[in-house]
Amino acid sequence: MSGRKTSVPKTVAWHVISVLLLVIVLYPLVWLIGGSFKESNEIVGSIDPFPVRPIVDNYISAVEGIAGIPATSFFLNSLIISALTVVGVVLSCSLAAYSFARLRFRGRNVMFAMMIATLLLPFHVMLIPQYIIFNNLGLVNTYVPLILPKFLAVDAFFVFLFVQFMRGIPKELDEAAKIDGAGHWLIFWRVLMPLARPAVITASIFAFIWSWNDFLGPLVYISDPERYPLPLALQLYIDQEQFSDYGAMIAMSMLSLVPILLFFLAFQRFLVQGVATSGMKG
């Protein structure tokens, strides 16, 4: 009886702490949702997540756009960048992973270790050299600097993801395909890629979300407001000299979360399966 009595206070304390942590974690999201229905003068300096008088004018202003640019243009710009990023990441990183997982060549382990080591290299270290290169090529203020590197397998995380998954696929399938006369390309495209669908979906989800939310890259390379993606377009709602429409900015932030949420909900079961199986070793 004494053990049961002592366990009750611990259980209550554990649930109280869990609820408090949940409130702390969810408060910013609740405040963001509530702020999208507040007037701009009610948002600044207020920690109350709920509006006194809910309004929908913020969403109307967000849909209409800003600076003469409709909101659909910002969504389309983000969609173009994110979609091409997903295509580039899946194609290039899966090809690079195939060479590491299936081919035998001198220096393979050293090159793989060097590739993994790039995960420790901050993105900002390469930002200035990359900007100088693209500026000399006249590609600044275009989407090329944001998309082209994705087709060159520069994301070591995704290469590692595909490598680990492909190592879990039996090599007997490759040998059977070779007997039927298949080369490396057919083995990669017809044998491994269909089996690597969970890894493809996982890489696609992460690549889409990271590209959709990217702010620093477009900030450095894009200067024309008509080419702004959504994260960069949000700053247009804040004017240091005149009126800042915080309500429309928050409403636009909420609208920008919808594609990510839908994309994640559509493929979440593949995400769990891909993360679980990518840790297998051949």
Automatic annotation (TrEMBL):
- One GO biological process term: transmembrane transport
Domain called ABC transmembrane type-1: residue spans: 75-267
* Membrane topology value: Multi-pass membrane protein
Q: What is this protein called?
A: Carbohydrate ABC transporter membrane protein 2, CUT1 family
Q: Which family does it belong to?
A: Belongs to the binding-protein-dependent transport system permease family.
Where located?
A: Cell membrane
TM region positions? 12-33, 74-98, 110-134, 146-166, 187-210, 246-267
One cellular component (GO) term of this entry: plasma membrane
